[in-house]
């Protein structure tokens, strides 16, 4: 549909097609074949310098003078579109400053299984939250002239057997859960998409996903490719993948390390022998060049400078990282207003997670260890830390100003030392961790995916040993996802629980901006300099079996079938549907103040389904995305301190729709001073109200009464209404 094509892409295509006319077949193929990881070759005839493609989704990997941003899961926990966008802008500035054309991120695979190894790179357990996070991140990155990459398309939700597993997903679930973040990415004009492996067919050869879903239905006009590391993952399996919709492979070895590519000379031969039309290669080359032109990279783009003499590109990003770190910190328990602190007489700091890695924060390749403060998981989704000052250092610095004494024990195994340090302290902080990452590393017996949802390093015993001797114990969790806390969360001596997640380099940063001004994200929250506003981007259950889906740990060289039999019911949708009480629900988080919700009003246009025809660009049809319903209410800070509230909108489709009982369709982050009120508005499009009809292959609004709930979490819906559609 021409109505959905952006003028920016039109202009880029015009330039790309003009350049294409100057290329030989071999040069066109060179565009689509990277002889190494991270770079394509230059083509002098069109003044094309080659593309530099570089990880990761949280900062420039394998370089120096860069920032280590909070992970995607923490950005999602802010529920704050402004911070999502600003992080994207800052990352784009750093990638551009290093001369990198393509940032291999963001990751938007769903946290289907809570132990999934790379789920922390993405945005959690809800497709709407993931979609908004991806959209804002991409707009931010590409505002700086850097190509963003939406990955991994599609259904790359675990690490075990990822090179030879088949994710088998029904059509409705695919559309409503797993495709949605990619649709939002296309709406953000994302330049490129990275593929994976699905439904019995290699994803980079899957015509149904690459051409059917992505290029036809969603109208994606950019480049689809695979960045392939021979020892990590293999998803290009034939030269024929070019005909299925794959536009670039890196390096696409016939077998790892063979140097012989499925593209390159093999693709040239396939064209000259008539097996593949040259028009396919023309399309591939045009798409690759169009992304380059789309972002204006043909004009005065910096040269690649990732080496040791390259520029320092951090700028003032530490301030933003600290803000996101604080905004993503989730306060889960605060008995008797233990927090915020006010110059306590004495503080105990317990656990290795509060201290340093003795060998340095970058000592383990790709952060493939859990030693000291945990600011990110491991694997290709990481970046080097420019620094990582520990929470212990930051707490000691603040305590020095306040006149508080600090005792510490950084051993996770010496429970006697932990108890000795904590006994008699006014407050004891216990730091526990849980780590995960890419399957290319075995970290403490965990091959990418976590083996379970328990705290690492005997964390439960550490908490219990401290709580036995200190009746004001606060647990701080740095983790990649949910951790089971049942053994101690109801202990009356555990008065606080703070979920810090993966905050990046500012996990323990201390800076003196004025006499008593501190830059540590965690300390900002603990001392009330920042009122906690983070909300859980996933559900914390009471046991791992509470979740609908689990990692399949099958170890086979043959294809491992992974049925997504839970369908639409992942994370909180499953808990709600089957009546399981979570420990902490999706969207939950406490504040140091309180908020009142009132005066719900629902208004809108008479609704009919859009008259669009399924086909190219149909999921981008303007009618489908027209805002037709407004949901307004009044939010008031009725507490004693200023802070952000995170109101959330949930819809309950008619029973006949066979949908989850509550579905997130809106959120905001609203700052209010004490006594201040504000009218908050959410808008809903026809797409927001629709379900995917697998028979008609259309988005359709289910007929009947749709419930509307507004509140502070998925289970704290304070205002309830309905609309008949």
TrEMBL record:
It catalyses: Hydrolysis of terminal, non-reducing beta-D-glucosyl residues with release of beta-D-glucose. Keywords: Carbohydrate metabolism, Cellulose degradation, Glycoprotein, Glycosidase, Hydrolase, Polysaccharide degradation. PANTHER family: BETA-GLUCOSIDASE (PTHR42715), BETA-GLUCOSIDASE F-RELATED (PTHR42715:SF2). One of its GO terms (biological process) is cellulose catabolic process. Residues 645-714 form the Fibronectin type III-like domain. One of its GO terms (molecular function) is beta-glucosidase activity. This is beta-glucosidase. It comes from Jaapia argillacea MUCL 33604.
